[in-house]
């Protein structure tokens, strides 16, 4: 069902990685997916096993405990997981792109040595506190503030929709905060806030439409004090740093969306071949065949898009437009394939015990999170010189 991986430029190590994670997904992740979804519980034993496989360390240097790989390798792992469980896939994606990557990209050597080894091993998770009630796509509307009081930052504000922020193994959340004014504009910086810091409250988890087994919380910061050295990157560079992290994250989310679209396709093909309707297999009906064919085309296109963006990123070339295209195409592919797969399944597709039912609930966020569809269109339009 899947593309011949050798035909799209993967080397032997990359094919082995994709095969390894696919097997892990089918044997370890899939069997627990429905119960975790039903109980709204992130299975930390699965997270631990992902850490043992080295998945959290894939795109990081070996000197910090990483695997010395790249973003393409990370995407292959995320795609394989998302076929069977988007909640586990987003746990890996956020743990790498939003948890560890900001430390690796912008941290001091001391911060890297302190935080990266446990994040890359899967011993700990970390979150990235950007979104606020009044600051989503318009991240510049950030209202959380931080000011220096001697040798400490004092932080006040709220964050929402923060992944991996409240698990038993969450070590810290990196938050964006307004730390002053520059040339009449907000100076936004990023600061590391360890979980358990007085005044830092992880509020009760959300009751979400989908990604039920993913850990997501609102956060409240009231007079939170952390050392001055917890500043991540240069003061005032938080917004710029966030944008670069988000560009990379869009590639990883695109891989997740591609895996979800593929999982829906595979399930729908199997079901159509087994389901008898008016004396014949559903798969013999032309309408079903055309639906499945369109689903296949979406998977293929989405995979090519995120692979291209990942290769540009790994080659050190500009990739923001290609990442936006991949996010746009793959997010719509996941949502469209989830809808079509649910229709193929009929009433069974409306039941959460079937993976396509969970994909249907899960996939809508792929058109919203890490940049909405409208934001991707704006990025693409601007790359065409359409300012305004």
Topology record:
Layout: H1 12-39, H2 44-52, H3 71-82, H4 86-106, H5 109-120, E1 125-129, E2 145-149, E3 152-163, E4 170-182, E5 185-194, E6 200-202, E7 216-227, E8 231-232, H6 238-274, E9 276-277, E10 280-281, H7 286-314, H8 320-345, H9 355-363, H10 373-383
Parallel strand pairs: 1-4
Antiparallel strand pairs: 2-3, 3-7, 4-5, 5-8, 6-7, 9-10
Care to give the gist of this entry?
This protein has ten helices and ten strands. With 388 residues, it is of the alpha+beta class.
Can you give a write-up of this model?
By secondary structure, the chain is an alpha+beta fold. 50% of the residues lie in helices and 17% in strands. It has 10 helices and 10 strands. The strands form 3 sheets. A 4-stranded mixed beta sheet has the order 1-4-5-8. Helix 3 (71-82) runs antiparallel to helix 4. The longest helix is centred in the middle third of the chain and has 37 residues, at 238-274. The relative contact order is 0.12. The model has no long low-confidence stretch (mean pLDDT 94).
The gyration radius over C-alpha positions equals 21 Å
Q: Distance N terminus to C terminus?
A: 43 Å
Approximate shape: globular
What percent of residues adopt helix (DSSP H or I)?
40-55%
Mean pLDDT metric:
94
Strand content: 15-25%
Low-pLDDT parts are none
Question: What structural category do the secondary elements indicate?
Answer: alpha+beta
- Write out the strand line-up for the largest beta sheet, numbering strands in chain order: 1-4-5-8
Total of helices: 10
Largest sheet: number of strands, sense, barrel closure: 4 strands, mixed
